[in-house]
Amino acid sequence: MAKEEKISDLIKNLPQTPGIYKYFDKSETLIYVGKAKNLKKRVSSYFSKIHTDNKTRSLVSQIEKLEFIVVDSEADALLLENNLIKIHQPKYNILLRDDKTYPYLLITNDRFPKVYATRKFTPEKGKIYGPFTSVGAMYSVLELIKKLFTIRSCDLKLTEANIKAKKFKACLEYHIGNCKAPCENLQSEEDYVKDIEQVKVILKGDLSIIKKIFVENIKTFASNLEFEKAEKLKNKLYELDKYQSHSLIQSAKDRNLAVFTLQTYETHTYINYVIISFGRITESKTFEAVRQLDETDEEVLSLAVYTVYEKTSFEIEEIITNLKIDYDFGIPINTPQRGDKKGLVELSLKNIDYYIQNKALTAPHEPAIFKVLEILQNELSLKELPTHIECFDNSNLQGTNPVAAMVCYKNGVPSKKDWRHFNIKTVVGPDDFGSMKEIVFRRYSRLKNENQPLPKLIVIDGGKGQLSSAVESLKELDLYGVIPIISIAKRLEEIYVPGDELPVLLKKTSASLRLLQKIRDDTHDFAINFHRLKRSNASGIKKKK
After folding, report:
1. 38 phi and psi, to 5 degrees?
2. Matching CATH topology for 3-88 and 251-362?
């Protein structure tokens, strides 16, 4: 398969979710890392547009392979992109190499430490917190710290000798109450350091102590009828709450974690691991594990954890898994059931789901695609493996130029030679139910008359109404019960089955649901394009008149 075809197949099946993408050249060297709100749209733009700048043209010409990692938000994608660029320094990420991309807060190593914002990652100067994905949020926290504590802002060298020699005079900051003038020995080092320790507590995300003090002070002010002061503290409490609601990855705080998850589909086992260093993702990979004997999932995951743990250069403090494993690494191994760490497990499992779907849809002759079909068969209680799926959708604008489309998938991949357009013939006006009944009847009466193979599953784009209309046609053709039929409703992605009042709810991240969504979306696009063509032709005729 040619390079262009391989990349094209990968792009077609990229998820439309936030994440980062990585481009490699023919020597498998990482040459570019990018972030995206929508991975599919962003990556597609590199190969579907004519680029005018030499840098982008050169980059695209060298791409031989691409990989991606899904995350939960744009903020997480931003952080992950930044971390990977700093670690690998790809040659096409020139603008992000100078460590000035995102803002940090620095507590200096001075005798009386200062707290200030910086865009340079300089841990030798003190304790660094961040990066912050929002400059506004960072300055909000910095301003909050300045209001809560009397931290100096000057650059004076406050050595013990200089203070004893009375080399300095208190500045305006002291007189307006923003500083207690340690430069004139009006505040002891011990008292000053207590404030700094409280600042560190805030920046680490443990706000319970500070909040408790705030609440007590608010009550005191209110009881003393000092409502203005109480209102100011309420605003500060609000700022603390806003700061606390940061990203999933950042919620790991200052800990170094490794997340390992395993998913097994029949004889195929997939493992993902995510390394989180100081609250930021630094590495993520999904791979398939080949079992030699009848090892349990827990044994396979234990071996994977051991292999990765031995090779990593990061000091891992805790391992998080989706399965309980019995292995002593000298550090805690936990299987969280709720909270932020459970969110990290779900993020890791999401990467496995996308890996399986991508492999299945880009390598139709490999077993992975049939595993997705087997899962779909089990979830919908089908008698046969749905190796032949046909999906229908209508398209009209206020009843004008009503058309419909049918898309066919065989062995889990598009069979475009079997795709069909329909002009609605017997229905007048915007009648989706009538249109659906007509096209389903026309399609399967023809296949039946010509003795052509029937599909293993029919999918209707719509809800109960469209499904009922399609079922009426199958009954007229004596095919109801011969061909399984379902509908998929866009709003909540609910699957409706004839005769069942309640919908079937597939897991939102499951590869089987995403396969149905892809088939449905292809059908919708196929119908819309045909409808636009009809409207354009109709408009052209009117103009000639």
Report:
1. -130, 105
2. no
